[in-house]
Amino acid sequence: MMRSRILTIVLGVAVLFSGMLLASRSSMFRLPGNHQGYEPVQPIAYSHRLHAGEMQIQCQYCHFGADKSRHAGIPPASVCMNCHKFVTAPLGAVRAEDELAGKEKRPPRPIVSTELSKLFNAVESSRPIAWTRIHSLPDFVYFDHRPHVNAGVACQQCHGPVETMERVRQVADLSMGWCVNCHRDANRTGIMGKRVKASTNCSTCHY
Amino acid sequence: MENQYWRSLEEREHFGDGGGEFQESPLRQIEPDQSRRGFLKAAGFAFAGGSLIGCSRAPAEKAMPYLSQPEGLVAGRAQYYASTCAGCSAGCGLLVKVHDGRPIKLEGNPEQAIGRGATCAVGQASILGLYDSLRLRQPLAEGKPTSWTEVDAAIRSHLKRDTAVRYLSGTITSPAKQAAIDRFLTQFHNAQHVMYDALSASAILDAHQQTHDARVLPHYRFDRADVIVSFDADFLGTWISPVEFAHDYTSRRLPPDRSWHAQFEARMSLTGTKADRRMKIAPGEIQERLLRLLRQVESANAGGDEVAERLLRSRSRSLVLCGANDVDAQVIVNQVNHLLGNYGNTLDIERPSRQRRGNDRELAKLLNEIKAGHVGALFMDGVNPMAELPEPPELGRVGLVVSLAGSLDETAERAHYVCPDHHYLESWSDAEPIAGLISLTQPAIRPLGQTRAIIESLSIWSGQPERAYDLLRQKYASNWERSVQAGIVQVEVGQAGPPAKWRDGQPKPPTPPSDSSGHTLVLYPGVAMLDGRHAYNPWLHELPDPITKITWDNCASLSPATAASFGLTDGDVVRIESMELPVVVQPGQHDSVIAVALGYGRKASERFANIGPHWIDRGPTVNAKGHVGENAARFLSLDGGVLRYERAGVHIAKTRRHIELAATQTHHTMEGRAIVQEVALKELGKPPETADVSEELWPPDHPTTGHRWAMAIDLNACTGCSACVLACQVENNTPVVGRDEVRRRREMHWIRIDRYYSGTPDDVEVAHQPMMCQQCEHAPCETVCPTLATVHSDEGLNQQIYNRCVGTRYCANNCPYKTRRFNWFNYPREDRLANLVLNPDVTVRTRGVMEKCTFCVQRIQEAKINSKHNGAPIQDGDTRTACQQCCPASAIVFGDLNDSKSRIARLAKDGRQYRVLEELNVGPSVHYLKIVRQEDQRNG
Questions:
Q1: Which one, of A159, A129, A139, A155, lies nearest residue A39 by Cα?
Q2: For chain A: N or C, fewer Cβ within 10 A?
Q3: What is the pLDDT of residue B258?
Q4: Which residues contact A52 (CB under 8 A, 6 or more apart)?
Q5: pLDDT digits (tens, 9 = 90+) for B724-774
C-alpha cells in the first residue's frame, strides 16, 4: 500500500512539473514575472508609429538618458513641448479648418486635438504625466543602458519594432536567460562588426 | 502540560481539547475535521489556489518624468556639490553626492586644505542628521509649534535697547555668521557674544594671550615636525582637527624622513597607539613633567632623557603639544616651543587656526550673570549647556530664552522660543577654519521643514532682513561661480592686529595635586560621540570605540592593576559618586585614572528604545533611564576660568550588578598566527622572508587578462579612526542592529577594525587592522555554497548574489577571516525619511541573506561603464572604494593589479607587504603593509 501511495505522489509531481514546463513554452501560459506582451493603456495615447516611424524622430531625441545613465528615461514634457508649442492638431484638421474659415470669411480658430489637450493641461496645471512603465526588471537586477547603447546595440533588438507600434508593448520576455544568451552570442560574433566584451559575471547585474 | 507532539499517525485521533487551557479555535466553526491535518488540508488548498490566482502581472509601476527637467540633470546620475562639513568645528571640505535631488553620501573635497579629500567617522555619519525625523520642522513658542511671524514679533517685542542680551554659541568659524551676530548685538547697549566649546581649548588660547599678546590657537603643522611630543593631546582622534592632523602626521611616518612621536597620556587614546614611545602619566603630573622639560630645554641639557634629547636635536622642526585645559601647563608648552624655535614653522600663528575660539572665562562670567538675574535675553546657538556643563545655567532667571537648535535637546526644552536652524546640508554659509582659508557651504537639498538659517533670523531681528544667499553672494562677488563650484575662496589674510610676538614671563610653580587619595576621573570625548552633539545618530552609537570596541554605552575604564585590586572585570557595574557605569579593563591606562567618555546619557538617545529587530529574545538598547550611557558632564568643573576635564580624589564603589557589554571584539589574541606583522625601522629595506606557501594545487585555468582588483592597507598609516567603517555603512546601506544584537556579535559592518595588544603590561603596544572580505582567489566560501550565490568573477572579485542566497550560512562558517555578515532579521526600516539616505546603487538586503564587502562593485561597474562611454581605459584612481576615499591617513589603496602603472601594483611588491593567513593558501586579494616600529626604546 505504501509503495502505491509513493508511486502516486511521484507520478503526480512529475506530471505537474512536465505540465508546467510544457505550458511555459507555449505563449498562452507565462511564468510569474514574465511580462511579455504587456501593452497597457497610457494616460496620453502617444503614437510611436507616428513620431518615430513616420516622422523618423530618433529614439535618443526623447529618450536621451540612454547613453548617459542607467535609465533611458521617459522624456519630460518640455521635450514634447519643443514641437508641440506650435503643433496642436494633425495637419489635415488644421487645413480643413483653414478652408472652412476661408469659406466663411472669418479668421481660422485654433484647433487642439484631444490627446494634445491632455499634454497642455498637465503642463499648465504643473501635474507630471503618470506614464505606466512597461519594461521593468525586478529590484535585484541592475540593468544599465549605457554599455549596450555604447556598444552599438540597436534599441529595436530588445524593445522590438517600436516605430511600428501605436501603443508600446513589451516584445521580449526580458528573462535572465534571454539576456545571457545575447551576451554569449555577442562575445562570439561581436556587435555590428566590432568585438565586444559582454560580461557574464554575476556581479555585472546583481549587486 | 503534556507535550502534544505526534509520535505516530495513530495518535492524531486522540488530539483533544487540552482540558480547556486553550481558547476555542474559530476554525472549529468552519471545519468539521478539527485536527491539524484538516486545517492544513483546507489551508493547503487555499494556498495553492491563491498562488494560481497570483499568476497575474505585478502591480503597474508608474514612471513620472519632470515637466521641465533642469539642464544637465540626467535621471540616475549623481551630481557632486562642494560644501563644508559641520560635524565639528574643524571645517573639512566636502563633496556632497546628490542623487535624485537628495544627498546620499559625503566625500571629502580633495582641493580643500583641511580635509584634503578625507572625512572622519563623524563627518560621514552626519548626513543622517539631515534625514532625522525628530528634527524640528517649525519654530516653537513655549513648546508649541507656531509660525515665524509670530515668533519674530514676540522676540522683537521682548528686546529693547537696554535689554542685557547675551548670545551664547559654540566656536563660530563662519565670517558671515559672525558678522550677522555682531550686527544683531550692536542694537543693544549691554550685549555680548560668548563662545564656549564643550571640548575646550580655552587654556591654549589664554596661554597665547599671556605669551604672545594675542588670543590665538596655532595652526599645528605635523608635516613639518621631525619630533612630536604630545602631553595628553589626542590629535589623531578628537583633538581640534583630526582629519588634517592624521593626514599630515602620516605623511611623515616612513623613512627617509620619518618623524619621532612621544606620547605622555593618562588613558589609552588613538594617538597613543601610534606613538613611538608612550608613557603613562597621571593628569596631575603633567605640569611637573612639562616644567622638567622646560628646564632641560632652557639649559640645553637633556640629562639622558631621550625626549629632551631629540627635541634639542630638532630645533624649529619639533612640536610640543598639550591637550590639558590648564593655562599654566599651556604657558610652559608655549615657552618650550618658543625656545626650540618652533613658532613660525611647526606652529603657525600668523595664519592661526580658528577651530576653537571658546572662552571659558567668559562662560563662567555669563553663568554668574545668569544666576544673579542680570541677563535679559539669552540666545543659544550650537551649544547644549543644560547637558554639556557641570552646573546647568539657571535659565529660569533669564527673561527671554531663545534656542536656535535644530532639535528639541535638553536646552531647547527649557527655551521660551525655539527657532530651528537648517541642517548644514540645507544651508548657505561659509567657514574660515584657518585664517585666510575660506570654505563655502552650499545647500544640497531644499530645507525639508520650515526651518530658517540663523543668519537670516538674526538679520530679521536686526531689522534688516536679508537672505543668507544674498549676503554670501555680495561678500564673495568676485569669482562667485568658480568659488561655489570648488567650495573654496582664496583670501589674503590681512593681519587683524599687530603680529603675535613673544613676551617673556616666569613660569608658575606646579600646583600640587589637591587630593592624593582616591583616583582621578578623566573625562574625554569619544571618537564617535565627541561632546554629545551626535547622540541622535544610531550609526555613531553602533560604531565600536576604536580602543575598547564597545558600542551603545560609555564605561569607566580602569587599568588592569586597578581593576584587579578591586576584583572587577569587564561589565561589572561600579558607582562613581552618583553615577553607575560598567567597567572596562583598559591595558595601558595609568593606575590612578578612571576614564569616562563624554557625550552619553543624552535626551537624543531616547529614540533608541525600539531600535533593532523586534523578536522574542530581544534585549534593551537603552538603560533603565531610557538613555544610551550616562552623562558624565556633571564631573566637569568650571573653575579658575577653565573647564576642567579631570577630577581628583574620586572614589569607586562596587555594586553587585553586572551587565553584558556590547563589544565587537572580546578576543584579543592572534592565537600564535602572524595576523598583524611589524617590521623594525632598521630592518626596512632588507628583502622580506618569503612566506611559507606550499605548492599550488589549483591549475592556472582562470587567468585574469582584464582587470584584477586588489587592495593594499598600510597598517603603519592606519590610526584606527574608523572613518572607513562608517563610510562603508553609508555607501552600502548596512543596517543598524541595536545593542543586543551587537552583544551577540551580529553587528553588520562589512569592514571592522581589529585591535591587538602586544608588549608588556607596562608598555602596551596597540595595532589596528582593518579587516574586510579578502576576496580570496581560492575562496573557501565559494566552494560550499549550495546555490552558487557566491562565485568568483573573472576580475578577481568574490561576488555575493543576494537573490540566489538561501541563508545556509555555510560560507560564513568556512571563511577564515570571519568577514561575512548574515542578515538574521529584517532590520526595521520603517522610518521613511531616514530611508532617503539609502544608496540606490546597492541592494537593500532582506532577512536570510548573507552579505559582505564587495570592493564597492557598484563603483567599479560605474567606472567601467564610464570608460566604455568615453572610449578611454580606466586609469588608476577612477574607481575608489568608499573606505579608501574617506581615509584621512590614505591607508587604503585599491586598484587594478594588471595595470602596471597603478599604485596597488607597486604596493603588492613592496618589501613590507604580506597577506593575512597566507599559509592557508586561499589567495587573498588584500595586501597589508607591516607596521614600522622603532625598536630601540622600550621602557616606560
A1: A159
A2: N
A3: 94
A4: A58, A59, A162, A163
A5: 999 999 999 999 999 999 999 999 999 999 999 998 888 899 999 999 999
Please write the tens of the pLDDT for every residue from B542-552.
999 999 999 99
3-class state of residue A72 by DSSP: coil
Residues 6+ away with beta carbon under 8 Å from A50: none
- Residue B30 pLDDT grade (very low, low, confident, very high; cuts 50, 70, 90): very low
Assess whether the previous peptide bond of B256 is cis (omega < 30° from 0). Answer: yes
CA–CA separation, A131 and B568 (whole Å) = 67
Question: What's the number of CA atoms in the CB half-sphere (13 Å) around residue B774?
Answer: 27
Whether residues B61 and A69 touch (CB distance < 8 A) is answered with no
Cβ proximity of B739 and B662 under 8 Å:
yes
User: Closest Cα of chain B to A106: distance in Å?
Assistant: 36
The pLDDT of residue B442 is 97
Coil/strand/helix, residue B311: helix
Cβ count within 10 A of residue B891: 24
> Does B64 contact A207 at a Cβ distance shorter than 8 Å?
no
Bridge partners of B80?
A: B97
pLDDT of res. B688 = 65
Q: Does B858 touch chain A (CB under 8 A)?
A: yes
Output the DSSP codes for B685-707. TSPPPPP--PPP-S-S-----S-
**CA separation for the pair A183, A201 (Å, rounded):** 11
B702 touches chain A (CB under 8 A): no
Single-letter amino acid, residue B834: A
- Which residue stretches of B534-630 are H helix? 538-542, 560-566
Tell me if A202 and B67 make a contact (CB, 8 A cut-off): no
Top residue of A203, A204, A206 to mutate, by most chain B CBs within 10 Å, is A203
| Lowest-pLDDT choice from B19-23, B232-236, B387-391, B627-631 | B19-23
Place of cell 590665538: B216
Taking only the tens place, the pLDDT of each residue in B835-865 is: 999 999 999 999 999 999 999 999 999 999 9
Q: What is the pLDDT of residues B47-85, one digit of tens each?
A: 444 444 444 566 788 999 999 998 888 888 999 999 999
pTM for this model (two decimals): 0.91
Q: CB–CB of A70 and B861 under 8 A?
A: no
Calpha distance A204→B858 (Å, rounded): 9
Contact flag A201-B793 (C-beta cutoff 8 Å): yes
Q: Which of B54, B75, B706 comes nearest A71 by C-beta?
A: B75
Query: Looking at the predicted structure, is the pLDDT value of residue B341 above 90?
Result: yes
Does the distance separating the beta carbons of A133 and B64 come in below 8 Å? no
Which chain B residues are Cβ-neighbours of A132 within 8 angstroms?
A: 60-63
Model pLDDT, residue B135 = 95
Is the Cβ–Cβ distance between B62 and A132 less than 8 Å? yes
* Residues from chain A contacting residue B865 (CB–CB below 8 Å): 144, 146-147, 150
**CB-nearest partner of A78 from B67, B842, B868:** B67
Predicted local confidence at residue B512, as pLDDT: 59
| Rounded-to-integer distance, Cα B343 and Cα B218, Å | 9
Q: Give the cell for residue B463.
A: 531689522
Element (H, E) at B176: helix B175-185
> Which residue in chain A is spatially nearest to B858 when comparing CA positions?
A207
Closest chain A C-alpha to B80 CA, distance in angstroms: 16
**Interatomic CA distance for residues B672 and B523, integer angstroms:** 36
Locate the chain A residue with the closest alpha carbon to B865: A147
Contact A136 B61 (CB under 8 A): yes
Least Cα separation, residue A204 to chain B (angstroms): 7
Instruction: Judge: B54–A32 Cβ closer than 8 Å, yes or no.
Output: yes
Beta carbons within 10 angstroms of residue B558's beta carbon? 27
Q: Phi, psi (5° rounding) for residue B170?
A: -80, -170
Say if the Cβ atoms of A202 and B58 lie within 8 Å.
no
